[in-house]
Amino acid sequence: MPPPQPEPTSESTAPSSALSQTKSSKPYNATLLPLLLESSILSFGTFTLKSGRSSPYFFTSSALHTARQLNAVSSAIAYLLSQPPFVDPTTSTPAFDVVFGPAYKGIPLAAAVMTELAHVAPEKMGDISYAFNRKEAKAHGEGGSVVGAGMKGKRVLIIDDVITAGTALREAVDIIRAQGGILAGVVVLLDRQERVSDEEKRSAVGKARHDLHVPVQAVIELADLIEVFEKGGMTGVGEEEVSRLKEYREKYGSVD
């Protein structure tokens, strides 16, 4: 029988120190980043972003479709979810009951992470559930716009690929709250660690932490790219690419 879960009463009010990404080394970076490069999920060059900025790198989760890629990414996410603040630092009891994958890219991520959690910590995570939303409500069969676990009174953690303008995240939060769920945290694949705009100095992830008052973490951050690639030995990434990453961070880096 799984350990009893504390009865949820309100959304997380964790102190700010618990909401930001821990600075300890991420053990998966040395194997995950080369795979992302090899698969062109992470690319270097010159790319014009939706914001109009010219970026020296680009991340596309649309290229994340092989078993090996999905396993590597879901393993990294599961590692984060097995660490504080997503588990109790003393008992390792999870601080969430349901994983929610927003349509569409969050759905395969959530499903893959569920399988990985069962391997990582079957006794603690074996009864974690997952759910996802439909873009359009179904009028027949079971009906509704949400598939999977019920979220009423449950602590719900969102998994998605990125946060940009924050619109998709707000929609996911609204769905969870409409179902009676309690937002427990957010995990995304990438934090570009760049300010949202000249007026908003925080990153999209930093702004989400501030606005939602829950832990918001990323599997990979811009700082990780610089740290790992600066060590060298990575095919296709040399001093020039690292230098351009640093220049980009200097120009557009966020304050959080």
How is this structure best described in words?
By secondary structure, the chain is an alpha/beta fold. It has nine helices and eight strands. The chain has helices spanning 16-19, 29-38, 67-81, 106-120, 122-125, 167-178, 204-212, 222-230, 239-252, and strands spanning 42-48, 54-59, 98-101, 129-138, 144-148, 155-162, 182-191, 216-221. The protein has a six-stranded mixed beta sheet with strand order 5-4-3-6-7-8, with helices on both faces. A two-stranded antiparallel sheet has the order 1-2. The longest helix has 15 residues, at 67-81. It is globular and about 50 Å long. Residues 1-10 and 12-24 have low confidence and may be disordered.
Chain-wise SSE layout:
Elements: H1 16-19, H2 29-38, E1 42-48, E2 54-59, H3 67-81, E3 98-101, H4 106-120, H5 122-125, E4 129-138, E5 144-148, E6 155-162, H6 167-178, E7 182-191, H7 204-212, E8 216-221, H8 222-230, H9 239-252
Parallel strand pairs: 3-4, 3-6, 6-7, 7-8
Antiparallel strand pairs: 1-2, 4-5
Gist?
This protein is of the alpha/beta class and 256 residues long. The chain is 36% helix and 22% strand.
Coarse structural class: alpha/beta
Strand content: 15-25%
Major pleated sheet: 6 strands, mixed
Q: What would you report as the Rg, rounded to the nearest angstrom?
A: 18 Å
The count of helical stretches stands at 9
Share in helix: 25-40%
> How are strands sequenced across the largest beta sheet?
5-4-3-6-7-8
Summarize this structure as a short list of keywords or feature phrases:
256 residues; alpha/beta; 6-stranded mixed β-sheet; 9 helices; 36% helix; 22% strand; disordered N terminus
